[in-house]
Each structure stands twice: as C-alpha cells, then as structure tokens.
C-alpha cells in the first residue's frame, strides 16, 4: 500500500468530483492535504471528510491569475512547511460550436484549464515553496480526440499534454516531476447516463468499462504523487477503457 506520510499536497479544484476523491484518498494514505476551491460550503464539506490532522482549506478563484501567488504562499505559511506535491484538478468543460467560439470564450477556458496551471507550476518550482516533489495535472481524452463543440476544451487539455513534457525537462534539475492523467468520461456524483447526449453515450459504449470511477483516478494520482513513481517524468497516462 502506498504511504504518503510526511507529504504535504496542494489539491486544486478540490470541490469537484475528482478533486474531492483525490483529497480524501491522499489523506487516507497519510498526506497532509491543502485543498482549494471556489465554493466555501463544498470546501468545508471536503475538509470534514479528510482523514488525519493538519489539513487546511483555502477558498480561491483561479481566474484571478495575478493573485495566485497569495494562494500558494498561504498554503506554505499556515504551518511553515513546504509543499511536496501539487494536484491540478481544477477545470471547466464548456460546449460551444465553432461559429460561437470567439477569442474571449477561448481565453476564458484557457485561463482556468491552462494558464492557472502554468502559473501554479511556476510558483511551485520556487525553492521557498518546495524543494522538489511531484505535480499531477488532469488532462482529458478530449485532448487527443475531442468531440463536436469541444474546441476550446480540447485545445486547453492538449496544451497541458505538451506542457508536462517541457516542464519535466526544465524542472528535472529541481527534482520536480510533472505528469498528467488523461481520463475519458468520469462518473460524477449525480451523473445519469440516460440523459447524456448521444455522442457521450456512444463514447461510453466504446469504452466498454462504463463510466470511470473517480476513486480509481484518485489512486493513480496517489501513485504519481508518491515516491513509488520516482522514475516517471513528462508522461500522459490514458484511462479510457477500450477506446482507440
């Protein structure tokens, strides 16, 4: 069993289905977890479900790019311990046809799904924040096979895929690993397959494994955060069942 004792991990997007499962799993494995999200009520609920002591919640909107340094500084200063890991589960999944995909819409999607991720990695790499460790980003199957209406979303996730390779090469000397997980369709807490669009149902059918349990992704994140994956750099791991 993985042991994350003495690890301090910042989880962004902790109020979403995957972020919540990840934060809980990391705490169960012994990590001290700092969680962040926009909704304070949901954030407090996640915090109450974490195992162990010393966890911390920070309400923050990642669209405030010029203030992200406040978030990461607080994640270190509240207990004066540096971070040893970062998990980026934050994101938005807008659907819009090309004819309505204007530059402002693209920009809004990239801010949360990509720009904020890059800024977090940039700040994390400061020796005052961390002295190495592991960074895991959540990409998407859409980055390599996006569906209609997913131009902005697919592009933002493709940007993550290419960036983890560059980041790993550049941050290797700082003992920082960067990887991504590229899941297909994850089961949400209230997902009802019957009312999903036909295109999504077709993808689920091709997966042949059903919707992906977020707890499975959380376990894979835990592996990439742990020292057991110490030789893994700049990789995107597909979790997509039998999709080609």
UniProtKB/TrEMBL annotation:
It comes from the Bacteria. Pfam families: adh_short_C2. Coiled coil: none annotated. This is SDR family oxidoreductase.
């Amino acid at each position: 069993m993985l042991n994350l004792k003495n690890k301090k991990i910042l989880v962004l997007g902790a109020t979403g289905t995957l972020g919540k499962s990840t934060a809980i799993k990391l705490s169960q494995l012994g990590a001290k977890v700092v969680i962040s999200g926009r909704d304070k009520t949901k954030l407090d609920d996640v915090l109450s479900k974490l195992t162990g002591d010393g966890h911390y919640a920070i309400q923050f909107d990642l669209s405030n790019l010029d203030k992200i340094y406040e978030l990461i500084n607080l994640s270190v200063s509240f207990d004066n311990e540096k971070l040893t890991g970062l998990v980026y589960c934050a994101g938005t999944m807008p659907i819009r046809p090309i004819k309505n995909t204007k530059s402002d819409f693209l920009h809004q999607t990239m801010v949360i799904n990509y720009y904020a991720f890059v800024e977090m990695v940039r700040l994390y790499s400061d020796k005052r924040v961390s002295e190495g460790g592991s960074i895991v980003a959540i990409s998407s199957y859409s980055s390599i096979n996006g569906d209609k209406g997913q131009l902005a979303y697919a592009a933002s996730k493709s940007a993550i895929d290419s960036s983890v390779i560059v980041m790993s090469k550049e941050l290797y000397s700082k003992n920082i690993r960067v990887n991504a997980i590229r899941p297909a369709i994850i089961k949400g807490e209230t997902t009802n397959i019957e009312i999903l669009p036909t295109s999504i149902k077709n993808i689920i059918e091709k997966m042949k494994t059903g919707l992906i349990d977020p707890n499975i992704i959380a376990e894979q994140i835990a592996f990439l955060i742990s020292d057991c994956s110490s030789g893994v750099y700049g990789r995107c791991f597909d979790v997509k069942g039998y999709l080609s």
